[in-house]
Structure formats: C-alpha cells, structure tokens
Design brief:
36% helix; Jelly Rolls; six-stranded antiparallel sheet; 12 strands; 2 domains; alpha+beta; 308 residues
Amino acid sequence: MFAMTFLAAVAFGQQGEVKARLDSTTHILIGDYLNVQLSVKAPASVKVLFPAVQPWLPDSVEMIGVSKIDTLIENNVAAYKQTVTVTAFDSGSFVFPALPFYTNDSILLGTTNPLPFEVTTVSVDTTLAIKDIHQPIKVPLTFKEVLPYILAVLAVALLVALIVFLIMHYAKKEKPKKVREKVVPKEKAHIIALSRLEALRKKKLWEAGEIKNYYSELTDIIRDYMENRWQFGAMEMVTPEIMAELERLHLSPENREMMRQILDTADLVKFAKWQPMPTDHDRCFKDAVGFVSATAETMEVKGDNERK
C-alpha cells in the first residue's frame, strides 16, 4: 500500500519541464482503469514531440486510450496536456514508466519519473459455503414490450387484406367461354349447305373485291355442313384436324382432295393475304358444291356415322 494518493514526476530540461501524475489513486482492481496526466511546458517557439506510450509499458499493462493534446499559449510559453488511460489484468505491483519528451530538433526537454501503482483482486470469503448459480428470473412481459409486436402483426394483416382486395377488385375476370349450342337442323345437312352456297354465289362477293369475306363465308358453310353431317366440331378445328377426321370417316381421296384445296386456299387468303385468281374462286365454289353433293346422306359413304 502506498502512502501517497497522488504521485508526480517532474523533470526539467534546458528548454521546458515535463510532468506525469496519477489522476485519482494508486490502487485499482483487476480490469479497472487508471488515468495518467501528462503535461509539458516549453517556449511557444519550440515544437514538442509526445512519445508513443504503448512501447514503454510493461507486459501486464495495456493502454486502452489516449486523449488529444490540449494546448494553451500564454506569455510565449506553451502548455500541453494529454491523458493516457491504462489497465492491468494481473494482480501485483506495476510501474507506469518514465517517458522522455523531445523537441522536433531531437533535444531532450525532460523525462518523467516512474509512477508505481497496485492492482488487486476482489477478496473472497472462503469460510462461506458455495452456493448454486441462480437461474434466470422469469419476468412477465409488459404491454409496452409486446405492443410493437401487436402493431407489426396488425400491419401485416392489413397489408395482406389490402392486396387481396386490390387483386379481387382490379384483376381481370376471365370471360366465360361461349358454349356453342348444337342446333339440330330441320332439314338435311346437304340441303341446307347447297341452299347457303347458292345464296353466297348470288352475293358476288369476290366480284366486288371482298375476297376475304367470300372465303370466310364459304368455309363456314362447309364446316357447318361437316358438323351437321358427321357430328364433329369442324368449326373449332384447323385444316389438318379436319383432314384427319375426313380420313377417319373413309371418304374417297377425291372428296378429301376437294376439301383440302378449299381449306388451303381459304387459309392463304385469310392468314397470308394471298390474292387468288378468279379461276381459283370459281374452282373453290364448284369444289364445295361437289363435296356436299358427293357426301350427301342420300349417297352411300363408308364411315362410322354413315347412314344409307
């Protein structure tokens, strides 16, 4: 135990003086800290170099902080102050070392005296019985602690509800598919088809330049005829599907070829903007009449749904 609470070291050089002192006590516990006040006085014209403290410290002492250098100039004398904070993690007697101070011209201003201090551990009463470590105490949550979680859950629920509402309100509703009702014709399929073909001929659409409309009506008449004649969905089929169905019905190659030429020509007009010759219009119309006439119910045609 040291008798003095504050120790100071003062060294005088040719151009100034240096001091080091402990700011409060010479006795600390392990892990506690100790502040050392360094002060220097020198002519204002002299530039003072403060030493690096860490290399001077003993192995068991560690520097945990160093303050900026405070400067005060008065009557051409500059006063410098700096605080160095150290600690120790071993018990015992230690010494804060003497530190040399130089000018920028490598002239020694002075050296501080070493500052002894002690580090002790917390005393333990070995006469007392060893007690178990206390388990963590359960503290009930307060409303203030759970309030942020409640608000977060409500915010998420409101966000989800808003998203669902917007989706239901603004999402495009899928339009129900139109179901094409099958209308049973009162007359034979070939009679209806030949009547409609004659009406188409009288319209003279291709003569008026309405070529696309002409082929659209022509193929609609033929597709309706095939649906009424053999009961398959020709209106929703593409050309290859229709040709496969006619082959399944065992129609003659001549009749299938007539239908293929009609559908291929119509496809080119509707989708490729092809301009057929007048002879092509006339040929397609005659093939349509010939196909209907050749496959009418009064004719014997081999097939799954044929009637004599």
